[in-house]
Q: What sequence folds into this?
């Protein structure tokens, strides 16, 4: 799987997680919403390739 | 790959909001129905009558109701105020000088505008959460309270008790508060009798970055919201609800700065 695909998939899952977080926390400001969405997107994107590599190594 | 999806979906499920209404029954005898009316126990309806119910609901005259924020100019003899559900203090670390008097007046005006005077509320004092403006003597406190609103601030600033404020800041620091700004700080304790102890919860709001009346008013409104909706949640141990409130406060505090950073970059 290409690196960009892994990053993208991680980002989409992070976006979903961020949206669930926003729905639960209900921040009062736009900035609050943005930070709660962008942090999971950034973290999941960054972790995507690393987690995929871990599973690939286990599979081998 | 499917495992990763599973773990992330598990995270999403754990983050789902708890149904708070299902956990606690409503405290009030009357509750708002879906159609916009009030539904009360039949006995209470007979005793109060429909008009009395509505009046009590809006005035908050029923004891045991929601926490209502209020303000009070208090001298040393009136401090800490008795019979209130809780109390806080507007603590300036320094007295006003000719260089920053305007800022003090601005914050005082927002304090007066956003918080109702305690004695003017119909809500019983045991349901009030009073935020104090400390004053040097009881006589001055009574004099400032009796002044018209536009004259109260200059007198309140002249009579401000820096000693009480510094004591409050020191007590809050003992409980983990960090006063690393210009101030003033809004500080509140739970339980109120725990002031000075290190194991009590201190609700704090830093007004160091206030430069305009609108900013001061916005933060005072936030303080009211903290007291009305979040104080009991934040003060009572670790729960998912407390975690939610903490995340919201953190996100709201840093979110706008984060957006500005993105715009600048």
A:
């Amino acid at each position: 799987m290409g690196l960009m695909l892994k990053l993208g998939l991680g980002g989409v899952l992070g976006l979903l997680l961020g949206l669930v977080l926003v729905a639960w926390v209900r921040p009062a400001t736009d900035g609050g919403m943005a930070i709660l969405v962008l942090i999971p997107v950034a973290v999941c994107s960054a972790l995507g390739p690393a987690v995929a590599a871990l599973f690939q190594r286990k599979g081998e | 790959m499917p495992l990763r999806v599973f773990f992330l979906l598990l995270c999403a499920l754990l983050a789902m909001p708890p149904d708070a209404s299902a956990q606690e029954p409503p405290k009030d005898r009357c509750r708002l129905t879906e159609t916009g009316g009030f539904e009360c126990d039949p006995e209470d309806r007979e005793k109060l009558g429909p008009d009395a119910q509505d009046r009590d609901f809006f005035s908050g005259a029923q004891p045991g109701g929601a926490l209502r924020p209020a303000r009070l100019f208090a001298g040393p003899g009136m401090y800490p105020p008795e019979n209130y559900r809780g109390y806080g203090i507007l603590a300036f670390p320094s007295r006003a000088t000719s260089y920053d008097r305007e800022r003090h007046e601005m914050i005082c005006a927002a304090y007066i505008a956003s918080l109702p005077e305690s004695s003017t509320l119909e809500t019983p004092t045991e349901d009030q959460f009073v935020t104090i403006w400390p004053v040097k003597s009881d006589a001055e406190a009574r004099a400032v309270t009796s002044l018209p609103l536009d004259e109260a601030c200059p007198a309140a600033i002249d009579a401000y008790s820096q000693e009480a404020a510094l004591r409050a800041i020191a007590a809050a620091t003992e409980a983990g508060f960090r006063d690393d700004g210009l101030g003033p700080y809004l500080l509140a304790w739970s339980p109120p009798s725990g002031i000075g102890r290190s194991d009590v919860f201190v609700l704090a709001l830093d007004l160091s970055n206030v430069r305009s009346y609108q900013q001061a008013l916005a933060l005072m409104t936030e303080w009211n919201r903290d007291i009305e909706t979040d104080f009991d949640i934040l003060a009572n141990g670790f729960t998912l609800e407390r975690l939610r409130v903490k995340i919201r406060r953190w996100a709201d505090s840093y979110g706008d700065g984060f957006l500005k950073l993105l715009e600048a970059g």
In short: The mean pLDDT of chain A is 85. The interface with chain B takes residues 1, 13, 16-17, 20-21, 23-36, 38, 44, 48, 51-52, 55 of chain A (CB under 8 Å).
